Amino acid sequence: MHPRRVKLLAGVVFFVTVVCFLRSSSFSLLPSAKSRFPYTQEHCPAKPPQPSLVPPHREGFDWRTIETHYPVQSFAQLPKRTKNSLPRIQFAFEEEESPLYHELVRKRRQAAVRAAFVRCWTSYKHRAWMKDELQPISGGSKTTFGGWGATLVDSLDTLWIMDLKDEFEEAVSAVTQIDFTPEGEVNMFETTIRYLGGLLAAYDLTDCKDSRLLEKAMELGDMIYASFDTPNRMPITRWNSVMAAKGEKQSAAANGIIAEMASFQLEFTRLSQLTGDMRYYDAVVRVSNVLEEQQNRTKIPGLWPVGIDVQTPDLTQGNLFTLGGMSDSAYEYLGKTYQLLHGGGPTGQQYKKMYTAAMNAITTHLLFRPRTPNKADILMPNSIRVEGPLLLPDHTAQHLACFAGGMLTLGGRLFDNATHVLLGKQVTDACIWSYRHAPNGIMPEVFTMQACPSLAPCEYDHGRSCRWPGFEAVGDARYGLRPEAVESVFYIYRVTGDNGYQDLAWDMFQAIDSRSRTALANAAIGDVMKLGDQLELQDSMESFWLAETLKYFYLCFAEPDVLSLDKWVFNTEAHPLRLD
Ligand SMILES: *[C@@H]1O[C@H](CO)[C@@H](O)[C@H](O)[C@H]1NC(C)=O
Ligand SMILES: *[C@@H]1O[C@H](CO)[C@@H](O)[C@H](O)[C@H]1NC(C)=O
């Protein structure tokens, strides 16, 4: 060895020894960027930390210290995890070799989705940094969800997954500057799924190494937890945080919405798993107990209506049932929370029972077979209204309800029911059908279809003419950059391994991206049922475009072990939480 190298080597060895000594002793001579928070770890904890983690003292408003009006006497504890209790979800891709040509196509598509993301992200960074949303036409910004930087937090994990690590680092530094101060009335459902889900997923993706993210998640978790301080410990989902901060008493709404009451389970369960602080888990156990207790007492046993009284609580009076907006994630979270708990304990079994009862009612009441000119083998979710003894179905398709394809597919694997996997495929195919047969290749937000008398195939009624066969009446012709259809395509592809779905995803991506593109980013489309080269665009890009829609497109073209469904569970804003 060259003498100079030897010298250099000796120097390095000495330096490393000193560093190791300093690190292992209790000296804190080496300043670390993260030393403020003591919970830097090598990996995510296999079991909840004991004693539970406490966030360090910080400047600014502290939600942990506000007075509790209705204290909890004893906290539910997370069930012990049983090993390998979950069945395999994904198709065995590793046993197949894909031809070189497919690989090239896949990578080219993946790069195109990533480029679309980068374009939007760059515009957000330059024009709307730390604001909730970029306005993709005017280049302005909007405050829509508390003003804490919804797009910033919602995009963190997509940055990581797309391997934009410098951008991720820059975004995390910005996140540490967010102050969850009282803000007037806040939508706690959106705050939970977008912000808390976003922080937890980003933390999980760093394998729990970047404790700045956990610190922020705990800070926000404490704010959300304060909205459960009601006489019956049910959440206030449209919460006046300023009143709460002043110490005023509040109670849950008499006119509540089921999805808002019942979509905290994944985020709060994960927060308790990561911190050992059982307040969060306890809060959602109380909600789940109410769901279970009243599930068979509603006007359609097995389902919960959209409108509920959270104050009493009474979930049995409402007469409108749907898989679409305002209900969706209440059903979605049943199977997924079971998965996050690895099916463990009485709570795991409770979610399984609720899932099974709900899916049985859904397959009986909330799906219909649309009449289409090509007699397509598809099933669409519908809504149903109960009037006295009558059940009045409304065959209105909603883009929002397209998530149900993924829910049934995942649930079918989790609970070993092949019928659910098939139903999930038929629902997903109905959404794909709507994309393919709409004039611009994009499904509108809301439209009615002709329904067959049963779930069996039937003839299309050619006597009833409408301009676009299959689309009877279009109630809302917008496309708001929504993810639900590609979300379900992603699940079907990962579960069945059928790469025909990659081609369908690519068609959807091209239609959406080419029609919604602005000079800066992508914008909501005013009317997708219009023909023409230039569709009217709206100056809006919701944070879910970067958090969900582009992430699911990207994952359709990623290697199947990127965010494998056997290792991660996605919240309703596409934020992946770690299962192992
Ligand atoms: C609701 O009904 C279903 C099927 O009828 C049953 O399996 C389930 O245990 C019931 N749930 C409750 C809470 O009684
Ligand atoms: C699968 O689900 C369907 C509909 O929900 C139900 O009727 C059937 O009994 C289930 N099959 C099994 C094997 O659990």
Automatic annotation (TrEMBL):
The active site is at residues 190, 328, 445, 484. Pathway: Protein modification; protein glycosylation. Its cofactor is Ca(2+). One of its GO terms (biological process) is ERAD pathway. Belongs to the glycosyl hydrolase 47 family. Disulfide bonds join 402-431. Coiled coil: none annotated. Ca(2+) binds at residue 572. It is an enzyme of class 3 (hydrolase). Its EC number is 3.2.1.-. This is alpha-1,2-Mannosidase. InterPro entries: 6hp_glycosidase-like_sf, Glyco_hydro_47, Glycosyl_Hydrolase_47, Seven-hairpin_glycosidases. GO terms for cellular component: endoplasmic reticulum; membrane. One of its GO terms (molecular function) is mannosyl-oligosaccharide 1,2-alpha-mannosidase activity. It comes from Amniculicola lignicola CBS 123094. Keywords: Calcium, Disulfide bond, Glycosidase, Hydrolase, Metal-binding. Pfam families: Glyco_hydro_47.
